[in-house]
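Objective 1b: paired records.
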Amino acid sequence: MKAAQIQEAEGEFQLVELDKPKPKENEVLIKVEACGICHSDAFVKDGTFPGLEYPRVPGHEVIGTIEAVGDNVSSWSKNQRVGVGWHGGHCFECEPCRRGDFISCQNAKVSGISYDGGYAEYMCAPQEALVAVPDELSSVEAAPLLCAGITVYNALRNSGIKAGDTVAIQGIGGLGHLAIQYAHKMGMRTVALSTSDDKKELALKLGAHHFINAKKDNASDKLQELGGARLILGTAPSGKAMTSVIGGLGVDGELLMVGATPEAVEVSPMEMLMGRKSVAGWPSGTPTDSEDTLKFSALFDTKPMIEEYPLEKVKEAYNRMITNQSKFRVVLKP
């Protein structure tokens, strides 16, 4: 089979021929139909994920069909269309797993990091990592929803917001353009926060009721004019940008961070205390959370904006994503 492989940290993608893998007893073999390129794939490209072993094939937004099942697999069948997201398996034995908190597994696997992922024609995955895919979504449409989609959908639905609440989406990119759609379709008064008027028309088209240019105006003041936000979903990976909008939270408001960045977010304890405000983060979710994301997306016609590339153009595709030139998700089609 063909695969796009990274040989070493900070290496370039190499298009290689590998033996098609065989599934272990608790795994399935997937013929890949589509694989999204995610900013987190930089962990493999740059060698920054702890314990990463090379060579490695990245990819954790995978949709395909099962070609073979392991001896111990009984709940998944050949030719079934499935997905594999960031959460690539869990141990079932650690304390979080014993409590059913699989996303917090102390020995969790990550697709495309712990084992070879979807930048290939085939891959194997543990059965507990599999996601059932609804017929209403194409493989290309569904792939980015297994990371970008679930990240914002799961954060929103677990935040405690109620229909009619003011929800601000900070950043209109790969995560943000989906978050605007989800928030609108969940019944929220949706506010889009960006640093460019170029995205205003798109934000309103996606479902935003209000648009704030945080570069021209004080976003916190503008949010307060709307009564203060019950929730600000931080999707742009910038600690400085997230810090700048905390003042826009209303009473009991929360800044919920999903945009991964090592940059610090600064908060004033007095500001937090006086308004019972909070700052928190949310990880993506388990395969069943991914299924909920796909079902909601299919039901309410929520789809990512994507650019498609063949596997042979992986370098070009990755560069479009990593330099923020893509609108808004990039998908490989082996």
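Objective 1b, second protein:
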Amino acid sequence: MRVIRGLDFEPMSGVVLCIGNFDGVHRGHQAILQAGRQKARAAGTELVAMTFDPHPLAVLTPERMPAVLTPLPEKLRQLERAGADVIVVADSSAAFLQLSAADFIEDVIVRRFRPSAVVEGRSFGFGRHRQGDVETLQAAASRHGFEVQIVEPVRIALGGHPDAVISSSLVRQLLTAGPVDQAAICLGRPYALLGTVIHGVGRGAGMGFPTANIDPGGQLVPAEGVYAGFAELAGRRHQAAISIGRTPTFDEHRLVVEAHLLDFAENTYGQSLRIEFLAWLRSQARYETVDDLCQQIAKDVEQTRQICRQNA
């Protein structure tokens, strides 16, 4: 896979192109990329995914910007897994985002990519104020000699909704409510939180359960609670009991994201950590004594082992 930053590159030709924010790279996005990949393979060409950094809303209306599901490194990882041969990361500058739909087609799609086909979802919008849509794209395709394939939304039965449309918004709703296993159904994989390991107060180590605390930046943090999952550190995957909360037993009110890596005791400070959420275990609770809390954590660890073994 090749990653190209910006739009200043030697023009391509004949590629199959998919354009989008792709936040989450959920199963709806994957369906678009899979359709594009099939078309690219049939034509003997490359599948190019074009995305944006930062999210356009972060530039246009920061107050409306939702928490990010996939920071750029995670998005690149998942776009590659979904089949992209080349990923172009366009800079979401104010000038770029003010391009009209017609200029976007002429200056970006046609001039930069010269695609044989463009594959998009039904809700695709582009250009200033999203004035362009799939009908606009189809009209331009006939003039410029490329094909347009529209992929319908992916629908699933989820909870009390028999026909839910998978979207980034739905994934956010599920994560903020707690059912990370349902979010994983929409994503086609466990949700992953990325961050750098920072110094905590060291209380976990003193109780026999050392934790790696992370700063997730602007990424969406799931609901407060205790979870079972995996932690990836320096290319190695570890079972992990994960806690998101405000440590009520110790009367602390800042939100803490920490993972106890099972059977692991090395120094992790300053390293990048990727945490995958498999299942919700319990809500945060206040315990009368530290011993009571330790007994509960021991139960969380054992439950984590069982769940991780089932998902190995």
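The mean pLDDT is 93. The CA atoms of residues 68 and 225 lie 20 Å apart.
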